[in-house]
Amino acid sequence: MDVCIKNINEENWRYFKSESSKHNVTMGELFNKIVGEHKESCNNSNIKEILFGEKTLKGFVTRDEFKKNREFFRKNFRMKQ
């Protein structure tokens, strides 16, 4: 499949071509490898776990205990309550 990609910097294009020849692969193979690695790195990020995972501290401290600890902390460090 032939594809035209617009707005590529000439220096970057030359670098891409030279890297493909250094590794003895076609430019299409190199491009597919780069895109595949990028997709893999995006899927391996833990952002989904952070956003949608189980909240480990939820239910760990009750609201009253939290208020009591907060007041104790602020009093000891002479912070405004």
Salient structural properties:
4 helices; elongated; mainly alpha
The percent of residues in helical segments reads 55-70%
* Helix/strand order, N-terminal first: HHHH
Structural class, from secondary structure content? Answer: mainly alpha
Number of helices: 4
Uncertain runs are none
Largest sheet: none
Average pLDDT confidence is 86
Give the termini separation. 67 Å
Q: Rough shape?
A: elongated
Question: What do these coordinates show?
Answer:
- The protein has four helices and no strands.
- With 81 residues, it is mainly α.
- It has a domain at 10-47.
- The protein starts with 9 loop residues before the first helix and ends in a 5-residue tail after the last helix.
Topology:
Blueprint: H1 10-22, H2 27-43, H3 47-52, H4 63-76
Structure described in brief:
This protein is an all-alpha fold and 81 residues long. The protein is built from 4 helices and no strands. The protein has a domain of 38 residues.
